[in-house]
Amino acid sequence: MAEVVLERVSKTYANGVEALRGIDLRIEDGERIALVGPTGSGKTTLLRLIAGLESPTGGSIRIGGRSVHSLPPHRRNVAMVFQRPALYPHLSVRGNLGFGLFPRSGWLDRLWPGKRRNGDIETRIIGVARLLGLEALLERRPDTLSGGQQQRVALGRAMVREPAAFLLDEPLSNLDAQLRLEMRRELHLLHRRLRATMIYVTHDRDEAMTLGERVVVLDRGAIRQADPPRVVYDEPSDCFVAGFIGWPPMNLLPGEMLEVEDRLSFKIGDVSLESRRRPDWRPFIGRKLTLGIRPEDVCWTVEAGDDRLEAVVEWIECLGHERLVVLSRQSIASSSWKVTALCSNAPALREGATGFVAFDLTRAHLFDPATGRALCHGRPRF
Predict the structure, then answer these.
(1) Three-class SS of residue 58?
(2) Which residues neighbour 129 within 8 Å (Cβ) at sequence distance 6 or greater?
């Protein structure tokens, strides 16, 4: 395996669209990273540049310490797994797994059932099939396999080549929910066994947090944050990452930090949240700010109390053991706001009910409304 290094990589298409701009990223040997971002953020383009399927406009790409700019895809020693398995329908699982290992001339003779096979290649095919649970399927054709089995064959076809890096472009997006969960676990365990360099592209935030030892958040062709999953969740670099990572997304409320009679509070319109447990907010007194708080740190109750704000239950979605609740406050004093809460035990919840909302400010974040950059983070959950 090998490290992959990108320095100031950019990509601009002929029509003037800037897909990537100034990407600096070092992927260590054996590291598993997840590239995540909205549609059009540049995830797949970055993967294609590493694979050699497209050429960068600027910057440099190194794999295993050598520049790969002048190398065609087949000489970069990387294996790419696409969104769709794209298996050869006329070949068996064995033939699909070994397809890339044989020279172009005479490969059909070697792969066709009943013909003599290369011993070393056969050993590698059997080893990968055993690792992926495909041993019993080696003589079957792709059209007789389930979606999950087909994707495992596509992954195995990449594995038998023993590449320097695996490039996975949303390989689970076409599977149903149960198969996705199973394949996530298999990929995680597979990486643990191989310690292979893996670059995994996904638009699924949960998938990125589950599979990535490091999560790289992309937006409009630039990296917003590249950190371990827990850091990305607990210490988002800006409002975009805070709102994108995690579901439901973080609540973001505009307001102002004030101090009245030595008491610190965050004012949202005509209501204030006392912040006596956040002395680290004191340097921001007098500033316009954006308060960020996760839905799991928002509590709804029918009982009034200090720092509890009156709100109306606007909408409820049952998630099984939890309920997703949208709470709103309407006021003629320009202090209207809406927040999302995750409530586990709230039997009195019903749409249209009036109650009170409380925030756990020890876990709240502050952002600069002008730049979106994080100014102060809350206490980590774990």
Answers:
(1) strand
(2) 93, 94, 97, 135, 137, 138, 156
Is 77 in the same domain as 147? yes
Whole-prediction pTM? 0.87
Question: For the CA atoms of 90, 96, 102, 108, what is the dihedral angle to 10 degrees?
Answer: -20
Q: CA-to-CA distance for 360 and 47, rounded, in angstroms?
A: 40
- Predicted confidence (pLDDT) at residue 368 exceeds the cutoff of 50: yes
**Residue 381 located in a structural domain:** no
Is the omega angle on the peptide bond into residue 249 within 30 degrees of 0, that is, cis? no
- pLDDT for 174-228, tens place per residue? 777 887 887 788 888 888 887 889 999 999 998 999 999 999 999 999 999 999 9
123-168: per-residue pLDDT in tens?
Answer: 888 888 888 888 899 999 999 998 888 888 988 888 888 888 999 9
The answer to whether residues 170 and 84 belong to one domain is yes
How far apart CA 171 and CA 165 sit, in angstroms, is: 15
pLDDT at 332 over 60: no
How far is it, in rounded angstroms, from Cα 374 to Cα 9?
26
| Helix (H) / strand (E) containing 293 | strand 288-293
CA-closest candidate to residue 34, choices 46, 24, 52: 46
Sheet arrangement for strand 263-268: 271-274, 263-268, 251-260, 288-293, 365-367, 374-376
Tell me which of 211, 243, 275 is where a domain ends. Answer: 243
- Helices within 107-146 (DSSP H only): 107-111, 119-132
* Phi and psi at residue 148, to the nearest 5°: -65, -40
Evaluate whether 255 touches 291 at the Cβ level (below 8 Å).
yes
**What is the percent of the chain with per-residue pLDDT over 70, rounded to a whole number?**
92
Structural domain of residue 76, as residue ranges?
4-243
Q: Which of 203, 165, 194, 193 is nearest to 80 (CA)?
A: 165
Task: Give the pLDDT band of residue 45 (cuts 50, 70, 90).
Answer: very high
The letter for the amino acid at 318 is C
Supply angle C-alpha 47, 196, 144, rounded to 5. Answer: 75
Strand partners, 355: 311
Beta carbons within 8 Å of 107's beta carbon, 6+ residues apart? 99
Domain boundary among 186, 217, 243: 243
Q: What are phi and psi of 160, to 5 degrees?
A: -65, -20
Q: How many domains does the chain have?
A: 2
Does residue 74 sit in the same domain as residue 217? yes
Which run of H or E residues covers position 325?
Answer: strand 323-329
